[in-house]
Amino acid sequence: MAIHQKSATIDVAKVKELSKLEGQFLADKIARDEELSRIIKGEDDRILLVIGPCSSDNEEAVLEYAKRLSALQEKVKDKIFMVMRVYTAKPRTNGDGYKGLMHQPDTSKLPDLINGIAAVRNLHYRVITETGLTTADEMLYPSNLSLVDDLVSYHAIGARSVEDQEHRFVASGIDAPVGMKNPTSGNLNVMFNGIYAAQNSQNFIFQNAEVDTDGNPLAHVILRGAVNEHGENEPNYYYDILLKAITQYEKMGLVNPFIVIDTNHDNSGKQYLEQIRIVRQTLINRDWNEKIRQYVRGFMIESYLEDGRQDSPEIFGKSITDPCLGWEKTEELVQEIYATLSK
């Protein structure tokens, strides 16, 4: 095989001991995870926000953001529950684009995956223990799940992974919520087939052993927009598409129906300020239709300390991948959501 081992085999148990939640930190995480589960099951009517930087490239900037978000969460906790995006791996297969903290823990140096693993665990651990928030990450590599499964409270499966059988099967064995995005084509059937697979028990080979899974009743929809054959963005947060998604949920008999609107990506065309309008329009749609209110109960929002993006990490807290809302606009948007829900 043309695969060449560059390091010793990773001792997962040893890696986990370096940043292990214990005592009150563990108890607090378990309590928040239970709250999140009740929200997705419809037992708690708060709105879920999966919110934070497009990619977590700088530990100190991410922690500064987390501290601000934690203080904001306290102010809106009776209407809104926030899980912070701590995304540490990015889908980059063409060219030399930034692949995330997992690959490159120091953006000024060459890729270093072994130290990247430690950096990823340390960042999730610090956000949890220093701010009281719980975290979300993208499950880009299913084989790496065991490296972070004790820390991450919400797993997202991206548009380019949702059709992959291994992602679907591994999702069926996770005991935490898994949000599954529609593919870039916008085909809702593909996404719903992925959710069906994730919600049901599966049998497959995982980490060199035959395994059975219990199925994940917390697997659910994330609508992130699409790209048509002409390369144009086609948003899918509109009223009629939401009703179509709800009909598909009911037709397939999936449990715990829950829809998250991804306000960036192909819904916004990566025009980050559009996220504000998309949230507003979705809240109006919820007011117009009881079913939409019942099913659409979450937003995924990309935000950081500074507005926009940059090509290299020169400005502290400004994204080096997709553009994000800055903190001032983020705080205003969350407070606007809170005020709308309080009417």
TrEMBL record:
Report the GO terms under cellular component: cytoplasm
UniProt catalytic activity: D-erythrose 4-phosphate + phosphoenolpyruvate + H2O = 7-phospho-2-dehydro-3-deoxy-D-arabino-heptonate + phosphate
Documented EC number(s): 2.5.1.54
Domain (DAHP synthetase I/KDSA) ranges: 35-333
Please name the GO terms of the biological process aspect recorded for this protein, alphabetically. amino acid biosynthetic process; aromatic amino acid family biosynthetic process; chorismate biosynthetic process
Q: Does the keyword Amino-acid biosynthesis apply?
A: yes
Molecular function (Gene Ontology), one example: 3-deoxy-7-phosphoheptulonate synthase activity
Q: Which UniProt keywords apply?
A: Amino-acid biosynthesis, Aromatic amino acid biosynthesis, Transferase
**Biological pathway:** Metabolic intermediate biosynthesis; chorismate biosynthesis; chorismate from D-erythrose 4-phosphate and phosphoenolpyruvate: step 1/7
Question: Record's InterPro entries?
Answer: Aldolase_TIM, DAHP1/KDSA, DAHP_synth_1
Q: Which domain of life is it from?
A: Bacteria
**Function field:** Stereospecific condensation of phosphoenolpyruvate (PEP) and D-erythrose-4-phosphate (E4P) giving rise to 3-deoxy-D-arabino-heptulosonate-7-phosphate (DAHP).
UniProt record similarity statement:
Belongs to the class-I DAHP synthase family.
- Name-wise, this protein is Phospho-2-dehydro-3-deoxyheptonate aldolase
Q: Which organism is it from?
A: Streptococcus hillyeri
